[in-house]
Amino acid sequence: MKLNLLSCDAQRPDKRAIAKCIIEISSSIGESLAQELTDILLEGDAVDIEIQDRNSGSALRALRKLSIDYEIIE
User: Fold this and answer.
1) pTM for the complete prediction?
2) Is 67 left (phi over 0), alpha (psi -120 to 50) or beta?
């Protein structure tokens, strides 16, 4: 499943928690790329990631908990 992470609406976003979440839910993203994608997301640009279908429910809950808006692409 592909997701487009649109924005983070948290009052004080936790960069470390967002990067850790991206690492855990994605199928092939490492730590340095996750940190880079987190910076891009927090600057206001959308980020595309691919997650494993078996983890999709928990992944979407984790994103909502971090106040990350997303859209499902596939």
Assistant:
1) 0.89
2) left
